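This follows on from our talk about sequence and fold. I would like you to pick a protein and set down its sequence and fold. Go ahead and set the record down below:
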Amino acid sequence: MKLSKPLLLLAIALPQTLAWGSLAHRTVAYLATHSFNPTTKVFISTILANDRGWDISDAALWPDKGIRWRRPETKQWHFIDARDDPPNTCGVQFKRDCTHDGTPGCVVSAIKNMSNTILDPHSTSTQLREATMFVMHFLGDIHQPLHTEYLDRGGNDISVCFDAACGRSHHVNLHSVWDSFIPLKWRNMIHSRVEIVDWDAENVSVVDEGVEKDAAKYWAEELYNTTIASSEGWVGENECTDIKTPIQCSLKWANESNKWICDYVLRPGKEWLMDNDLGDEYYAGAVPVVEDMVTKAGMRLGAWMNGLVEERMRRVGSLVAEDVRDTAEVNQWKELEL
């Protein structure tokens, strides 16, 4: 699946608040739908109803859009800074690591807070909608290994090469490699928000949003059929699905992601990573990690949303918020921008 030179990617410089590229986030959202029970499907279709053609994958991308700049306090909700010592020792500790620049808060606490908002009978329709989109996004974020690591801003400050695109001049760093380069190369895609190095062709187009959605749907279907449907079942006895313990569950997921930092992501050491092209052997070894984490993110999101909707019905007795129960039309996303 190696890309030809005309399709060589130059990823945009991604801040640490971004985890997975849009292709992976969309795939996580689509994969989750395979696990939604009928009530959850009604909840999602109702709360995300809109007149702009946006679907669940667009909702999963929303927290990485303009809201990050309009509400800067949400920036640190996308990651947790494990202050460990990779590749020697790895591990996430909630009290030690759930803070950024002296301000408390991280993806683990954000999953708890947004889950509680969904369960709150006093949440408005806007709060309910936003909390749902945050949860969908954060379940993807926490499964990107470098979003559980403090070192070099989660790899953003480690300049690397990928298929001959190198360093700061091409905006290639270890974080962007895991966000976008690896998933996109694996799916033989080019990203709608990257530049194309046109070495020897005059007309190289960028894949549009519709193509990206189709690719994400296909990837989700493939992951479901090969990993979930063909097995005895995905949720095992050791899987954390209790929405009443969001910190414990999220911390378990974060530690599982962070383990890959020592086991693979930073295992070769910074010097090796900076001196070698990561588009060959390193990429080949990374693909199973990406597939594993995207699969777990999607299936955990499905199970988590089922639990939240079930508990909301038990507590509130309604899927929608108080301010829209008596209206004929559910509020659209008019107050939101993607």
Remarks:
- The chain is about 50% helix and 5% strand.
- Confidence is low (pLDDT under 50) at residues 1-18, 191-206, 325-332.
- Residues 281-315 form the longest helix (35 residues).
